[in-house]
Specification:
Oligomer: single chain
Structural class: alpha+beta
Helix content: 25-40%
Length: 84
């Protein structure tokens, strides 16, 4: 198992029980899946998992926030995520 596979598994355990989150296949062939949250049918946040860590994408502002690990992700979500 690669480091990104292990991190993807950790993110799955953290986001799986949270309302509104689901794992989506990559839009690029062979690309990794992303955890996505939709509000009113529109993408609100996506979490990409890579070898260097996590990245939160906020399409409303076209902003990417890199995060080192799942603890940082959960802290970021606590501070920024709107209720589902």
């Amino acid at each position: 198992m690669s480091a990104s596979d292990d991190l993807l598994d950790q993110v799955a355990r953290a986001l799986g029980p949270r309302p509104g989150w689901r794992l989506e296949p990559s839009s690029s062939p062979g690309g990794p899946p992303a955890w996505c949250r939709y509000d009113s049918g529109k993408l609100a946040l996506s979490i990409d998992v890579g070898d260097s860590g996590l990245a939160v994408y906020e399409p409303e502002w076209d902003r990417v926030t890199p995060l080192a690990d799942v603890a940082a992700l959960l802290a970021w979500l606590t501070a920024h995520e709107r209720p589902a």
